[in-house]
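User: Show me a protein chain along with its predicted structure.
Assistant: Here is one chain, sequence first, then structure tokens.
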Amino acid sequence: MTGSTFVSYDGVGGASDSTVGTGFHSGSVFEPTTKVTTINGEIITTIAFDLTNLSASGTTQKIIGNKEAGVAETAPAHLVKWSTAKNGVMYKAEMSCMETPTCAEGTPVLDFDLEAADNASVYNADPAGNIAVVFTGGGNFAQGTSIQDLSVGDVGNDQFIYLIAGNAAGQGGKYTAGQFILKLYGHKELA
């Protein structure tokens, strides 16, 4: 195991990291959890999240989050604040659906993208500042679906990463289900 680094967290092999924005907390079954694992210089940032009680706008490319979380800049709805020192230089993203998203009213958004931006933003806003497209789903998610994107944008240090509505579904209410595992792959800068 020469060259491997395991950071222990409850025997799982990852360190806990809680940089998720308060506007992405939904009061659902569980709060989003983030673990960062380093193996041979590869850094995997794993985020598990539940969409229950979060909302997606009927407008494409808007931030998904808690619509009751507050006004602009008080409850940013980001999944993670990226740190190149901690998370590395990103080169791949993968999202897997553990539970199909549903909502009580309207048609749920099932196509998701990820974008990185300089500024902290809230539910239903456009990501602000310099934008990097991190992940393009390109289709609807259902339980057991995994989509990988090898063409991640140039995600900068201290940028906020957001879950974005990939299509305009005209959703009228909150999600009542929808669980995901997001893996963001980075690597330490090569010396």
